[in-house]
Every structure is written in C-alpha cells, then in structure tokens.
Amino acid sequence: MTSTLRALFGACAVAALATVATAETTITVATVNNGDMIRMQGLMSDFYAKHPDIKVNWVTLEENVLRQKVTTDIATKGGQYDVMTIGTYEVPIWGKQGWLESLNDLPASWDANDILPAIRGGLTVDGKLYAAPFYGESSMVMYRTDLMKKAGLTMPEKPTWADISKAADAMTDKAAGIYGICLRGKAGWGENMAFLTATANSFGASWFDMKWNAQFNGDAWKKTLTYYVDLMHKDGPPGASNNGFNENLALFQQGKCGMWIDATVAASFVSDPKASKVAADVGYALAPDNGLGKRGNWLWAWSLAIPAGTKHADAAKTFVDWATSKDYLSLVASKEGWANVPPGTRKSLYANPEYAKVPFAKMTLDSINSADPTHPTVNPVPYVGVQFVAIPEFQGIANDVGQQFSAALAGTTSVDDALKNAQKLTTTAMTKAGYIK
Amino acid sequence: MARAVTPARKLGFTIASWTVGLVIFFPILWTFITSFKSEGDAVAIPPLFVNFHWTLENYVLVNQRSDYLLHFWNSVVISVGSTFLALVIAIPAAWAMAFVPGKRTKDVLMWMLSTKMMPAVGVLIPIYLMFKNTGLLDTLTGLVIIMTLINLPILIWMLYTYFKEIPGEILEAARMDGADLKSEVLYILTPMAIPGIASTMLLNIILAWNEAFWTLMLTSSQAAPLTQFIASYSSPEGLFYAKLSAASTMAIAPILILGWFSQKQLVRGLTFGAVK
C-alpha cells in the first residue's frame, strides 16, 4: 500500500513538474511600425527555438498612436503590455517616476559595456539602465555627389552651416525641379522641432537657462530661425512647411533634393536602388556646426523597456535580452545581410570589419558619438535630451512652438513674431507647470 | 406651378452630381489604386494614375504579416453587437419620448446629445481605469459596451425623429382595439418605423466600424479590430504608403460593400418623413 502511495505521489510530482516545464508564458510586446521591428517579427523562429516556453503577442502601431497607448497604460498601471518600445524621450521621465523595471540585472552575456556610451547615457537614470536599445540613430547630411561635382564643390566631412548654404545655392536649379536643400517644416515636437532644436544647439541656443526661463528672446534663437527660414525660402522646395521625414524622403529619392539633413536611418532608404532613383549618387557628412563645439545632430534610440509591475517580468527580460543581444545582430546579418542590421547600439558592431563595409556605417557611428544628451548645448542647461527636453510638458509646448516656426517658414508670420509668441507661450506653460516660481 | 426641367438643366445637374461624387470618392479610389503599386511608384513625382506596374505584392505582404480575419471578425462583433444592444435600449427610450413626452423630455434629449460634445480623450483615463478594474481591457464585451454607450444618443435622437412622424392616432386606435404596450411597440410601431430603424441601424454599424479612438485605446491584441490593423501599417519614418493602402482597402471593403447594397434603405430611411 505504502509503495503504491509513493508511486502515486511520485507520478503526480513528475506530472506537475512536466506541466511547469511546458507551461507557456505569453507576453505582449508593443512596438512601432518600422523596418527593423518588422524584420524582428520575421525572425521570431530563432527565439521560439531557444525559448519554447514563451509566446510573444505583437501589437504593432504607428509611432504617435503607440506613444498615446503605452503612456495611458503605464500611467494607469493597466498591465496590457509586458514589453514596450519607447524612445530616449520617455525613458528618463518614466524611469524617474519608477514606472520601469531596471535592466541592470540582464545576464553578463548581454554585455552592457558594449552599448555605445551616448545611447547608454540617454537610457540611464541614477545609474540604472531602464531600457535596452534596439536601434540608435542620429542625424546627418545626405547629399547628391553628382550635383556637387557638377557645381564644382566638395562636401567636407565635417561641414559648417556656411558650407551648407553655399552648396545649397550652387545645386539649386528650380527650372529643372531640383532644390538645393530639403529640411523638415511640418509642425510637431518630433517633426520640425526635432530638427530645429538640434540645429539651435549648434548656434549656441537652448530651450531654457538653468532657472527654466525660456530662451527664445535671445540672439542665438533669432540667428537659428533666420538662417533656416532664409535658406529654405532661397533653396528649399515649395510647400516645405508641410514636409516631414516621409515627404522629404520621397523628394530625395525622386532626385528633387541636393541635400537632406535628417535621421541616419534614412541612409538605408536613399541608398536602396529599388526605391531610390539616386541610390548610386548619395554621399554622407556629419551634421553642420558653427564652430561653437556642438553639431546640429540629434540622438534617438528605439528601445525595449519593461513596465514595473508586469506579471511576466522574467519572460519579458528573456525576450529583451534576445532582441537586443550581439547574437541577434549576427542573426540579422546571416539572414538579411549586414546593411539590414539594426544600427547604432553596440561598439562590437562597428568593430566588425564586415559591417564597416556598409557605406553609411562610419558616418552613423560618428554622428551618434558626436551627440551628448547629458550636455546637449553650448551653455549649461538643467535638462537632458538633444532634440528634446526630457520633461513631460515638452511634447505640448514644442507642438505649439512648432506651429509658430512652421508659420514663419510658410510666410504667414515673421521670424520675430514667431519667436515672440514662442517665448510667451513657453513661459506661460512653464509657469503653470511650476518650473518658474 | 412646378418649373419644367429642361434637358440642359438636367445635364447641368447630372454633371454637377458626378463631379461632387467623384471628388468625394477620389481619396478612396486613390487608396485603391495605390494599393497595387510598388512603394517607389506610390510616391512617384508626378503621381502615376494607371501607367505603372500593377502588383498584388502588398496584399500578399499584409496577409503574411497580419491576421486579417481576426481583426475583421472583431470589427463585425463590435459594430453589429453594439448596434443591436443600442437598439434594444433606444427603441423603448425613443418611443417613450415621442409618444408619452414629459415636461423634461426636450431637456433629456439635449442632455443626451451634450454627452457627444466632450472630446473623447477627456474621459480616457477614468474609462481606462474602470475597464482595467473590471477586466474589460482588450475584450470584445468591453468594446461592445463602450460603442453602445457612445452611439446611443445618436440612435435615440434618430429614432425619436422617425417616431414623431408616425401619427399618434394609429397607436390610439390600436389601444382602442385592446393592444397592450408590448403589442403596440412590437406590432404597430416597429413595422411602421422599419425604414427608420433600418437606416439608423446601418448608420450605427458604419459609425461603430469606423470608430478609431476607443477601439485603438482599449485594445491590444485579442479584441483589436480593423482600425488597429490599419494603424499598424502607418509610419512617420519610412515610406509604406502602398502597404498602408492595401491594408486600408481591405479594412474598408466590407463596409463599402454593405453600404453599396443597402444604399436604398439608407436613403429611404434618411428621407423618411421629409415630405408629407
């Protein structure tokens, strides 16, 4: 009888253990619709082979919809997502609020020291890493080598804004439908204000002084906006105040732009012969400066973060570890080629001689390395962020300021009035929010 | 005396109608055409109308990447379910207001309409918290409830307007013949108001099908309808217009077909009682 009971208990224990071993944990991953993220979804068989006990549900959304959804969910502790794709704007704010799980305990094989310092700095709050970078980007100059040659000019590797004006003037041929420069003009904190905030850094401007007073009434902002509006009126395409990343990408790919200063991720699109008419004639240079020690390039990293309080933290960390590992980069390279590897996150990727052959690899790395989110401006500022200010109020304020600057570009208001309005509305918002006493 | 309609006048009206119709329909036509282009052709300058390499590649890619049938089924359940639930509430409510009005009936109607005047985002957080606490996030039940509540004021208003057109004497005659309340609503009122109810129902299904704020905010993977299917193909950083157009065409096709076949009922219902 005793032996029968023992056998029965034993069988139950084995059955229970077997159930535990095969129990499936389902995690929900919210992500943006871009090429690198979609590619990852196609490579999930590798993850499932290594972790058959974890199932991943994908929620892929347009960036702004995703931001609204995940912000609502994390602020209310809704628990709909176990992994969220967020950017360098959200991480410092959400990390400070205690909304994110620390990733300091990712396995040693993940190798945190391999992450590019600029990117790691943007994702760390008080010594804790709150998100693992999936891909990083900066901004740089993309230009038409054939048009530069025709104009008898050479683009320096580190151009100044004066070089950019000169090249834009020389390449513009409005009769042939070629415009010397294409820049973002569409209003929005992630549209024209990303470009103009980064540009302003190189002109010595900043959003705030150390006491959070708005700085749009300063000389540096006037120089920035005047330069931008004059350059675009002279050498930019018509209707530029409606152009964002996609519109400028379409113009550049169709051979309508001499230069385009925008995200480094655009390099893979403009150099793709299937999509771009000018793929064979594209050169790259660092974002311009004015000799003040700061370049007009930004820094962004789409990163994977785990909301605090998720019920599946271990499975979520396993997924984040896999998706942002060195092995994942090798996996993409083996299946899709080195040019399709998510860029801008790891030193080891740029040390790889195979990856060094990708035409835009070096310029992307140099651009990322020249951005410093913790010291973004010429003069000291109380905030973190190159093309944004990492405070919750920034999105709303920058959208309003973006409207003013877009109107200045469209010619419906003057540069002086746009700056005056920007100063007024920023001061009002910051006073209401309690930054200015 | 009615003015004679001359052939020239008729031709003018016909041309004007076609022009307005084409202008309104053009974005849908352009989306449809773009869905058969390569991504490069989709952004060609000048735009290509028919002279391009037609391809089904986008439809293949969209079907490989997304579970269209799941999203489609969720849209059907949410729009049809919320419409029937709303009708069950709205028909008696509109009957009461049309045939047994009280002192405050007009105020109640105005109050109901006023709930539509607040921007949806203003109540997002409280509703999100309620859904979270009741386990309704990412469920079809939750979506049916919220869509019922959102469209209820419009349904009651429309039905109230239709019911007002039905002469009260007919209902009185039914009562004289011994009809109770249930028989009066079910056998007299409802059959007479069928065109109105049908058009209200169709309009509500269309509204619920197209609703893109709550359906996006309150779902993630299991209950996500076609609005999320479309949103997953939009991107501010990357040209995916052809794929987005293919996804949009697949999302709007069912409701477009429903609208096409039911246009007679829709027009009949919308003009019901307009001419006495």
Topology:
The complex is a heterodimer of chains A (437) and B (276).
Chain A (H helix, E strand, L loop, with lengths): L1 H21 L2 E8 L2 H8 L1 H7 L3 E8 L1 H13 L7 E4 L3 H8 L19 H6 L1 E2 L2 E2 L2 E13 H6 L10 H11 L7 E4 L9 H11 L16 H17 L9 H9 L3 E7 L2 H5 L11 E5 L12 E7 L7 H11 L2 H11 L10 H5 L1 H4 L4 H9 L24 H17 L4 H18 L5
Parallel strand pairs in A: 1-2, 1-3, 7-8
Antiparallel strand pairs in A: 3-10, 4-5, 6-8, 6-9, 6-10
Helix pairs in contact in A: 18-19
Chain B lengths: L6 H28 L4 H4 L14 H9 L2 H32 L5 H10 L9 H10 L6 H25 L3 H9 L4 H12 L1 H17 L3 H4 L8 H6 L9 H21 L1 H8 L6
Helix pairs in contact in B: 1-13, 3-13, 4-7, 4-10, 7-10, 8-9, 10-14
What's the gist of this structure?
The complex is a heterodimer of chains A (437) and B (276). Chain A is 45% helix and 14% strand.
What does this structure look like?
Chain A: This is Putative ABC transporter-binding protein. With 437 residues, chain A is an alpha/beta fold. Chain A has two domains: 2-137 and 300-356, Periplasmic binding protein-like II (D-Maltodextrin-Binding Protein, domain 2), CATH 3.40.190; 139-298 and 381-432, Periplasmic binding protein-like II (D-Maltodextrin-Binding Protein, domain 2). Helices cover 45% and strands 14% of the residues of chain A. Chain A contains 19 helices and ten strands. Chain A has helices at 2-22, 35-42, 44-50, 63-75, 90-97, 117-122, 145-150, 161-171, 192-202, 219-235, 245-253, 266-270, 313-323, 326-336, 347-351, 353-356, 361-369, 394-410, 415-432, and strands spanning 25-32, 54-61, 83-86, 124-125, 128-129, 132-144, 179-182, 257-263, 282-286, 299-305. In chain A, strands 1, 2, 3, 6, 7, 8, 9 and 10 form an eight-stranded mixed sheet that branches. Chain A has a two-stranded antiparallel sheet with strand order 4-5. In chain A, β4 and β5 form a beta hairpin. Chain A is globular. By secondary structure, chain B is an all-alpha fold. Chain B has a domain at 66-232: MetI-like (MetI-like fold), CATH 1.10.3720. In chain B, 71% of the residues lie in helices and 0% in strands. Chain B has helices spanning 7-34, 39-42, 57-65, 68-99, 105-114, 124-133, 140-164, 168-176, 181-192, 194-210, 214-217, 226-231, 241-261, 263-270. In chain B, α7 packs antiparallel against α10 and α8 (168-176) runs antiparallel to α9. Chain B is globular. The two termini of chain B are 18 Å apart. The A-B interface holds A 28, 30, 32-35, 38, 41, 57-65, 68-69, 72-73, 75-81, 190-191, 244-246, 249-251, 253-254, 256, 263, 265, 269, 274-276 and B 39-40, 43-45, 65, 124-125, 128-129, 132, 137-138, 216-217, 220-221, 224, 228, 231-240.
